[in-house]
Amino acid sequence: MEIGILLLRLTVGLTLAAHGAQKVFGWFGGYGPDGTGQYLESLGFKPGRRYALAAGWTEILGGLLLAIGFITPLGAALGAAVMLVAALTVHRQNGFFVTSNGYEYNLVLGVAALAVAFTGPAAFSVDHALGLSVSGVTWGVAAAAVAIIGALIQLALRRPATETTGSEAAAQSAH
Question: Which of 2, 88, 146, 169 could form a Cys-Cys staple with 77, CB 3.0–4.6 A?
Answer without folding.
Answer: 146
